[in-house]
Amino acid sequence: MGTTGGRPVLLTGATGFIGTAVIRELHRVGWFDWGPPLVVLTRSPPQWLAESGVEVVKGDLSEPDGLRGLVDGMSTVIHIAAQIGGDAGRCRRVNRDGTKFLLAEAEQAGIQRFLYMSTTAVYGHGPHRGISESLLAPEPVSATSLSRAQAEREVRRFGGTVLRPHLVYGHGDTWFVPALCRLVRAVPAWIDRGAALTSVIEVNDLAALVVRLMGLSWGKSRGAVFHANDPRPVRMREVIGTVCRELGVRPPSRNLGCEAHRERTRKVLPGLTDHQFELLAKDHWYESERLWRRTELDPGGGFAEKFARSADWYRAHVSPDATDPVDLGYSEK
């Protein structure tokens, strides 16, 4: 199977955290000067999107009747849109059924290049330590993750490619780092000295991987699943220490064992689920070398260096005194 051949590419989720980064990366590499046309499906296009060099199609994956023929004449579907949270019915309509609709349209149009942005949350409870994509079966524990695992199965059956990032940070992040700040403020203690290892990826790196795949032949990737993370896991002590230092948040001043910390968080942050707490307290890191080898990209510097690049954005958009309920949205993605 070849590359785009000059035919248009469809992108869903372009106004979200990851999709916006993909648009930025397309501009950075000059896609709109030399690449094929980009068509964006969105419910409500902001002004910046209409002015960014894309063709906008208004529509909703939960109401697909008006989207028949959407992908006719295209070469590739990059499906990033997702329903995160909310009732189970909405998750099924957008994540499972919306993906099935796009796949059916792609099949009818003769398209084989279909990329789906999923999440390691489909694995469910950890700990997970250096597991490769072929050695861990999805066991989702929420309506969001269940619907995304169901979407994954349809994509792989079709022969599409699935990416599973874990915790994503950077410009536009309204979940992971803000939630971390609220947690540290509410319970200013390390969990088992912050020893847990986790997989993270800067959103610009994730976007670069997606854009690189858009320009490659997918002959070796059809039906494949890739962990989409920095290949070097990082300890939560470094993550929290870096975030606190860069954003002016007081770092933890003492240490609590996992169970003692969980008992405390249940009282002061009742919205934090056991699964979300596990992501911060226990190892969740995934072998992620394959995708970097496939794209021949260099992951570059470490977490502290990359986080510093987005620290100004976080300082402008995240209040360290926030008292909103903790929402580790990227446990669901």
Automatic annotation (TrEMBL):
GO terms for cellular component: cytoplasm. GO terms for molecular function: aldehyde dehydrogenase (NAD+) activity. Residues 9-214 form the NAD-dependent epimerase/dehydratase domain. It comes from the Bacteria. This is NAD-dependent epimerase/dehydratase domain-containing protein. It comes from Amycolatopsis albispora. InterPro entries: Epimerase_deHydtase, NAD(P)-bd_dom_sf, NAD(P)-dependent_oxidoreduct.
